[in-house]
Amino acid sequence: FQVKSEDSKTIWNTEEIPEGSEFDDIWDPREQPEYQILFKQCLRTEDLFFGMSRKDPSTACCEDMVIQIKLPETKYSDITLDIQEKVLDLRTPKKKLLLHLPYCVDSKNSKARFLSEEETLEVTLRLSRQFDFINFA
């Protein structure tokens, strides 16, 4: 067993640091908002009535992940949202949410909308998993 190190003073390898940890700030006094993660499937008639596809109710057969974030007393213009492959970073003047996502997402094909009556931000993220080409064939 041999450890290769480029710099003998390095105490960790850059691959060991989780994506999004640069956003994590333990000294930030803003509280974390309430949120809920839901999964969404696109079902057709052949899925529901005939059972012709391999879809089941598990998250492995879902195409989208929907994150609903409660943001009371917040205006749409005060929301800053950054979505990366494995991290959602949301900031407002009063709230902060750094969420490490359970699946990789395609941030370019994702969308967000603010429901002002419910004071909720709804973020729909397109899942991007390694074997989706088999699950959704």
UniProtKB/TrEMBL annotation:
GO terms for cellular component: cytoplasm. It comes from the Eukaryota. Belongs to the PIH1 family. One of its GO terms (biological process) is axonemal dynein complex assembly. The gene is Pih1d3. This is PIHD3 protein. One of its GO terms (molecular function) is dynein intermediate chain binding. Residues 32-126 form the PIH1D1/2/3 CS-like domain.
